[in-house]
Amino acid sequence: MVAINGLISKAKDKKAITDLEGHSGLTAYELIRPQEKGSLHLRVVLDEIEPGGAIDPHFHELIPVCDHAYYVISGEIAATLSGREEIVGPDTLIYCPTNVVHAIRNVGKNRAKLLRIGAAASGETGGRSVFIKPG
Question: According to the model, what pLDDT value does residue 99 have?
Fold first, then answer.
């Protein structure tokens, strides 16, 4: 169902999701998602990552295209894109095109908060995550 007149979505009213594959020390709050929660193309999730927590290296399979980004609200993050790592802080956008291997790790002393944003023209919630095993 699409929210034709808009939607106000509060993280405090959402169920905490803590059992995502490849997402250690992370609590997610899905704010909006295509089809069933108010949007045609956009998915927005608030991620809270504990110190040392991470989103393991992965990419998203084509569906045919799923843009993916993280906006750092607070904390100190090691962002890895295609094997290149950079430490970033608040007010930073990390953009991950479809099929680009990316990872996020909280390297700070406090919980980090990020908005995870995905959009696909097909109205899917995002491409399937394919995790890269070390080795």
Answer: 82
